[in-house]
Amino acid sequence: MSGVSLRDPYLGDCRLSPGLVDLREAYFRARPEICIERARLVTAAYEKFGLFGKERISILDKARVYRYVLEARRAVVLHRQACAEGMRPFSLTDTSTFAGSTTSKFKGVPLYPEFLALALWPELLHVSRRKQNPYYLNEAYIEELNGKIFPRWLDFTIQELARKRYNPPSLKIMERLVFFLASKPTCISHTIPLFSRLITEGLAAIIAEAKEKAAGAADDGRREFYEAIGEVLTGMVSFSENIAAEARLLALSEADPRRKAALLELEAIHRRIPAAPPRTFREGLTAVWLAWIALHLENSNIGLSLGRLDQLLYPLYRSDRENGTLTVDRAVELLGFLWLKIGDHVPLVPEAGEQLFGGSGSNQAITIGGVDRKGADAVNDLTYVILRATELMKLRDPNLNARYHPGINPPEYLRRLCAANRETGATPAIHNDRAVIRALMAKGETIEEARDYGIIGCVEPGSAGRFYGHTGAILLNLPSALELALFNGRHRHCGLDRLISVATGEVSSFKTWEEFKGAFIGQVRWLVDQAVELNNVLGRIHQEVYPTPIMSAFFEGPLEKGRDVIDGGASINASGVAVIGLADVADSLCAVRRVVFQEGSIPFSGLLAALQANFEGYETLRARLNNPEKTPKFGNEDLQAEGEVRFLIELLDDLFGARENYRGGRYRVGYWSMTNHAGFGRLLGAMPSGRKAGESFASGITPVSGAARELTSVLNSLAALPAGRLTGGVALNLKLNLAGLPDPLGLFAATVEGYFDDLGGERDGGLEIQFNVLNRETLVEAVLRPEEYPELLVRVSGYTAYFRDLNPQMQKEIIDRTEYLLGEGRMIPWEPFVFPRERR
User: Fold this and answer.
1) pLDDT tops 90 at residue 83
2) How many beta carbons lie within 10 A of that of residue 411, not counting itself?
3) Do residues 96 and 79 touch, judged by C-beta distance below 8 A?
4) Segment 600-639, tens digit of pLDDT
5) What phi and psi, each to the nearest 5 degrees, are found at residue 518?
C-alpha cells in the first residue's frame, strides 16, 4: 500500500465540496414531512393478499407484501424530486451521488401502521403546528390517513393484537408509563444486519442459493422460508432497476452534458447493483444504501445499525486508491452524501412522546476501529476518512461509535478520536475493546464473535450480523421499584390508595436495613417479571404476524437453519434491557441506610413525610441528603455507594439473565437512557437521595449531576464495575471544559486511556465514555437564542441530537450536567438552570 496510506490522519485539508455544502444547508432548512407512501402501499398489499384478520401471517406472505411495495414505490433519483412543499429549490451543481430514498420525501417521516403510526391519529389536524418538532402533513394525506389507512389497521397493530389474543396484565402496567416501556409495539429493529455477502457476492448469488435450498427443503416451513428470501431479494433488485429506468428517463431530457453523464452513470450502477457484487467504493456504498432502504421498509426506523463500515468497505476503498480512481477528498465527499441519505428520515414521535423521546434521530450507529476477529489492529485509512466526514458534516445521524483497544490500537488513533470530539462537540462515543470483548465472552460468545462486535442504536455492543438482540426491547424505570418499596406496593403517580404490585411491608415497621433491602428486591423482582412477560407476549405476536424476511436475508444463521430471525434463526439470540435511574436509586439506598438505619437521625416515617412534602419545610434534611460529604454519592470512590451500585447491577443481571425470551435467548442488561431519564423523571416524586419531584434522573450510568466533584473519582468508580454484568451497554456522559490547556488533546486522550486501564487485571476498566465538549454558557445561549444555534450538536445518552430539538426538561438536564475543567479534573460549580418563562 505504499503511496496510498494516509500521512495525515486528521485530513485537515479535506473540505466539503460546494454541492455537498449546498445539500447540507438544504437538509437543515428542510422541515420533516410525513410520508404516507409506505403506509398506503402496505395497506394495499394486505388487501391484495388477504392478510387483514389472518390468525398467522407467514414469512412468504410478508415477503410478497414487501416485494409488492419495493416494486411499486417511487424511484427517487434527484433530490428535487423529493423536495418539500414550499421549500426553496436546490441550487446544486448536482446530480445526486446516491439515488433512492427511505421515503418519497427529502426529509421524510415514514409511517408504520402495524406499529406506532395510529398514535398520530388524534394529531392529524395540528401536527404541522405543534410547538415541539412539528411535521408537515398536507391536506390530501390527512384525508387518506383518516378515511382509508388508519381505520383499516385499528385492530391489527402489534399492541392491539397482544391485547386481544393474550391480554396480559403487564400491558396495563406498561400503559401507566411510570414502570417500564416495552418497545415491540413500536419497533423490533435494534440490531446490526450482515452486509458481507452483499459486498462479496451480490444478491443474485443469495437468490440462487435460496432457490436451490427451497427445491431441496425437507419440510414446508423451510421451503416457504427460502421462497420468501428469494421473493424479497428479487424485489430489491427490481427496485434498483426502477431507479435505473428513472435515471435514464431523466438523462434523456437533460440538456447539460455533465448532468446527463452523471445520470447515465447512475443508471449503469443500478443496472448491476445490488444483483452483482460492487467493484468500486461508490458501488459498495450504493449496495449498502439500497439494502438500508429495504430494511427500513420492514423495520421501523429506530436503532437499526450499520456495523463496522470501515472493515466492510475497506477492500473496495483500498482497491480504488491503489488504482488511482479514488482520492481521499472524493471518499470523504461520498461518505458525506451517504450520511445525508442515512438521515433522510425522522422517526415518528407523537406529541405525548416528545417528553420521553423528543429530539432523537433514528440512532443508526456506525462502528469504527478496534481489533479484527484475530485480535489484530483493525484501524485503517477508511477509519480516518469516516471520522473526517463525520467532523465536517456534524449530523446527528449516523451515530458514530469508535472502538479503541489499549495496547493494540495506536495512541495517535485515540488522540484523533478526542480531536473529533473537540471538533464536533459531541461525537464519537469511545468504547473500550478490552472490556467489551471480555463482557461479551462472559455471555457465551466466542472470542472471534466478541472481537467482531459493533454498536447498536445508542451504545449496545453485539457481534455484527450474527447477534439478534433487539437491544432496546425493555426500558426499565428502576426508581419506580424503589417507589413501590417505600410505599408498600403503591406508587404516588397512580395514587397511594391502590395496590399496584405486591405488598412488601410498611417501611415504618422495618427494624433493620436488611428488611428494607429485602422489600426493595421483591419490588425489583416484580417489575422484572412484568417487563419480561410483556416482552415475550409481544415477541410471540411478532412471530405470529410480523415475520422478517428482509432482515433474515441479511443475517448469519437464518439461511443455514431455514428459520426467520424472529423465530430464533440468528446465530446468537438475546433481548436487551436498558435500566434508567441507576445512580438515583443507588444514592437513595445510601441515604436510607445512612440516615434511617446507621445514624437513626430521622425515622422512616419522617423521611416519607419529607418525600410527600417534596422537601418543603425539610430544607435542612434535603441539604444534608444532597451533601456527598455527609451522605454517600456514587462517583466519589465511596465504598458504600459503589457497593450499592454493584448490588443493583448484579441483582438486575441475575434476575434478567435467568429469564428466557421468546426466541430461546437470554436477557442482557445495560445502562443507557436516550431521553427517558428526563421523561420518567417528570412522573416520579421526591426521592431519598434529595432529588425533588419531577427532576430528571441521571443519564445512563453517569453519577447524579453535581454529586461527584472530582473527575478522577468518577472514572475510578465506573472502571471498577464488573463488565460482564453490563453487556447491554453503558453510557457514561461527561461534560468537559478544555479551556486554558497547553495540550488539550494529550490530556484528553490520557484521561480516556486511564479510564480504560484494567490495572493489570485488577479491574475491568470502563466500557464506554462519551462527551459534550461544550461549556454551560454556550448551552444557555442556545436556549435564549435558538435561532443562532440551529446545528448545535449535543450528546444526550448514547446518541447525539440537535439541542434545539430537545424539550425544555432535556435541555435543562444537559445544561445542569456536571462540567469538569479537564486540566484540574474538578467540577465547575453551578446553580440549577431556570428556564425563562416564555421558553418553558
Assistant:
1) no
2) 14
3) yes
4) 999 999 999 999 999 999 999 999 999 999 999 999 999 9
5) -60, -40
- CA end-to-end distance (rounded Å), the chain: 57
Angle between helices 639-657 and 711-719 (to 10 degrees): 40
Residue carrying C-alpha cell 395496590:
499
Q: Find the mean pLDDT for residues 410-435.
A: 97
Separation of alpha carbons 819 and 816, rounded Å: 8
Task: Specify the residue for cell string 410505599.
Answer: 487
| Grid cell of 568 as nine digits | 430464533
φ/ψ of residue 243, rounded to 5? -65, -45
Judging by DSSP bridges, how do beta strands 365-369 and 399-404 pair with one another? parallel
For 132-148, b where at least 16 C-beta lie within 10 A, e where not — what string?
Answer: ebebbbeeebbebbeee
| pTM for the full predicted model | 0.96
CA-based torsion, 738, 740, 744, 750: positive or negative? negative
Burial class for 513, CB neighbours closer than 10 Å (0-12, 13-18, 19+) = middle
* CA distances to 152, 325, 796 from 673, in Å: 34, 44, 9
- Phi, psi of 660, rounded to the nearest 5 degrees: -100, 140
| 542 phi/psi in degrees, rounded to 5 | -60, -45
Give the C-alpha separation, 803 to 812, whole Å.
11
Q: What is the DSSP letter of 613?
A: T
The CA distance from 330 to 341, in Å, is: 17
| Contact by Cβ (8 Å): 459, 401 | yes
In the prediction, which pLDDT does 91 show?
44
The β-bridge relationship of strands 793-795 and 768-772 is unpaired
* Residues 6+ away with beta carbon under 8 Å from 644: 586, 589, 590, 593, 632, 634
